[in-house]
Amino acid sequence: MGKAEKSRIALPVGSNLDRFIMKNQEAFPYASGELSQLIRDLAYAGKVVNREINRAGLADITGAYGNENVQGEEQQNLDVAANIRFTRALKKGGEVAAIISEEDEEIIDLNNPRSKYIVAIDPLDGSSNIDVNVSIGTIFSVYRRISPQGSPIQTEDVLQPGSAQVAAGYILYGSSTMFVYTTGKGVNGFTYEPSLGEYILSHQNMKMPKDGKVYSINEGSYYSFEPHVRDYVEACKKRGFSARYIGSLVADFHRNLLKGGIYIYPSTEKAPNGKLRLMYECNALAMIAEQAGGKATDGKQRILDIQPTDLHQRVPFYVGSTKMVKEATEEA
Ligand SMILES: O=P(O)(O)OC[C@H]1O[C@](O)(COP(=O)(O)O)[C@@H](O)[C@@H]1O
Ligand SMILES: [Mg+2]
Ligand SMILES: [Mg+2]
User: Fold this and answer.
1) Residue 59 pLDDT greater than 70, yes or no
2) What confidence tens digit (pLDDT) does each residue in 162-178 have?
3) Considering the entire predicted model, what is its pTM?
4) Residue with CA nearest ligand 1 atom 5
């Protein structure tokens, strides 16, 4: 059994997230527990947001908030509520120095100068599906700051390439709620058990099938796709592959992680750099994909190698089963 296998945490399915985090920490003799606590803080905020999502149709939290975010998108009430919940939990937790959020134009400095971690977060992914009771999610990336603890946060602390992530994950609020994450030692999934208020280990050491028969792309923009994307979509159709597009990145990604498949948000005339954001959507899912044996590129280069230049920059996104991503980007 290789070193990597030995360092994978072997815990029986059914263990809870807390125990898994603790066991994980024991594998790192010099671990100080800060990253573990940070993961717990994210998981906790996810429980609160999950409760609000489950009762969204009842309460007065559906609909638009009446503001536009830095992307020029109309913020939904739940976008704002989720943003507040995660920011508050990370601030109170004390392990995070600064946050990059889809819902905030500037870096959120949490005035925790002694903290060494930076979090990039999409508090609510799939906003167009909030009011129609379709699966939505939260996406997060964790980095270690570069500048010394105690000093003011620098741009270099936040604009780090995805390869510098120390942890990444997502929460899927679907028919069940799942917390899926990696710290660079494989991907594990935990299903939320509301009656216990616990995330239970349900998907251990997740592996993305090398190939698949499902493609996810918004064909509504077909006529503004580049030729290689059109060709790939045509090839999928000729092979009788299934088209699946939920319109929530986390949900489409999760399905492909389990069953095999590819998700593409290419550059289009309307969105020459694609729609998805490198810092708080693509980097996290690229790390999960690679840790599970999949692949993620912008059509030309590995997502995790891209040096960010802007907090909210967009990139074309090809992610999923290795064989499919390779084929889809061959002529890119
Ligand atoms: O409606 P489109 O253009 O296909 O875009 C859908 C994509 O946009 C997103 O909703 C963008 O994420 P946000 O909802 O967090 O802004 C993805 O979840 C989804 O895959
Ligand atoms: Mg999103
Ligand atoms: Mg969002």
Assistant:
1) no
2) 999 999 999 999 999 99
3) 0.95
4) 247
Choose one of 65, 248, 270, 315 to mutate for the ligand 1 pocket test, by most ligand atoms within 8 angstroms of C-beta.
248
| Ligand at shortest distance from the CA of 250 | 1
Q: Rounded mean pLDDT of 221-228?
A: 95
Pairing mode of beta strands 177-182, 165-173 = antiparallel
Tokens of 322: 């290795």
Catalogue all structural domains in the chain, each as residue range(s) with its CATH number: 17-203 (3.30.540.10), 214-329 (3.40.190.80)
Residue nearest to atom 9 of ligand 1 (CA): 126
**Residue 285, C-beta contacts closer than 8 angstroms, at least 6 positions apart:** 139, 168, 170, 249, 250, 253, 296, 319
Q: Which residues are annotated as a binding site?
A: 102, 122, 124-128, 218, 245, 275, 281
Q: Is the pLDDT of residue 41 over 70?
A: yes
Give this complex's ipTM. 0.99
Ligand 1 lining (C-beta closer than 6 Å): 73, 102, 122, 125-128, 218, 247-249, 275
